[in-house]
Amino acid sequence: MDDLASLRDGDRAVVIGAGLGGLAAAMRLGAKGYRVTVLDRLDGPGGRGSAIHKDGFRFDLGPTIVTVPQLLRDLWATCGRDFDTDVDLRALDPFYEIRWPDGSTFTARQDTDAMRAEVARLSPEDLPGYEQFLKDSEARYHFGFEDLGRRSMHRFEDLLKVLPKFVGLRADRSVAAHAARRFHDPRLRMAFSFHPLFIGGDPFNVTSMYILVSHLEKEFGVHYAMGGVVAIAEAMVRVIRDQGGEVRYGVEVDEILLQGGQTRGVRTVEGQMIPAPLVVSNADAGHTYSRLLPGKKRWTESKLRKRRYSMGLYVWYFGTRGTRDMWSDVGHHTILNGPRYQGLVHDIFLKGQLSDDMSLYVHRPTVTDPSAAPEGDDTFYALSPVPHLGHAHPVDWRAEAAVYREKVAAQLETLIPGFRDRIVAEHEMTPGDFRDRYLSPHGSGFSIEPRILQSAWFRPHNVSEEAKGLFLVGAGTHPGAGVPGVISSAEVLGKLVPDAPGGMRSERLAAE
């Protein structure tokens, strides 16, 4: 796939999906001089990062935080724009609070001395392990994020070159196993190993390379975009349109068109043909290869069925009336742990079993962003990891959703007592909604799980081996899920695709 000369026959490009990965890809293509058309079946931008509005409340459906904002600043700079002029990004302090059933807590912050104090408060004997864990995390960040995560891994020889480094960093060890080697206290083991859940990974099976997230938090902080992540998506659309590109909503792609092994455009479900020699799919990689592309060779139905997918998500969004000054001890991000950690994770990922107990991630954006609710009110969402729909006996959410919501509510009462009497607007999403809204295989929340043999070269590549002129971005491809991952996938795309014919750049860049 190194010979991309055929792409120079035209300057048109189609991007399937207006998620953050697809919009970032469109921006980079626009900066290279392509005339880009972005198509999305939803009624607005953002994909999993979109939002809905009910009775004055904004419910941000997907990601709520931004780490490594420099990736976004670099993306904007490539387009001759200033990210901070277009998006109001606020650094959070603290990042989040973790609460356990015994009443103990851990508050995560960027300041290293504050983090040392938190570790010492729970377990003084674990301070040396914490110091070593920071070094471990930084080493994996430089290798796994700055190196592998920002370049294509579609050549097998590239994998062979980095295998010794993988071995040296014990990539075969899981995140949880690595944390267990550095911490004695089970609460700290959880606090420094749960992060893979934010990108759909089982901490007890995902490669320890993902402890790099701890360094990301320490080095770059945790941020919130005023107006929610959808505000970033909307700003991206403005850049694309300023470049001369087009973003169309309510348009679903039915097939990627090929001729002689070369992409020739797409056909929508309404039968419209949109020609382009370059196609970028931000649809889930599983959906791209199982539904949109005929005649697959490597990513066959059989191979896709053998992939392990991330867990599903149950998310309850609700708005409460007159509560802005209530629950003063509840911050922007709270993690409520149930009585089990490893057992619950195994139920979700391995057994495919919906448990009675749960752990919850609770988002209260109105602590930082009053625009998420009417004046004096609050917006919340409570997210619970649950099994995806691909297990032998999938959960029937039509029967279980109401029962599960009551279980979630009972746990939330320990954090925000009396909240149910204050609810005036709500929305609910189950794995079935993720399947239907985002066309996510098995209703998974984050596409293919980032296990070691489903990462780097083993993951669907950014440049497809199935057809010339076809590229993939987003959570299901390299480097993986999460806002930094999908933005980086577009950066990798930018390194693979040549400038549009004639070397034309966008008018904005040319003017500079």
TrEMBL record:
One of its GO terms (biological process) is carotenoid biosynthetic process. Its cofactor is FAD. Pfam families: Amino_oxidase. One of its GO terms (molecular function) is oxidoreductase activity, acting on the CH-CH group of donors. Pathway: Carotenoid biosynthesis. Residues 20-490 form the Amine oxidase domain. The keyword Oxidoreductase applies. Keywords: Carotenoid biosynthesis, FAD, Flavoprotein, Oxidoreductase. It comes from the Bacteria. The keyword Oxidoreductase applies. Belongs to the carotenoid/retinoid oxidoreductase family. This is Phytoene dehydrogenase. The gene is crtI_1.
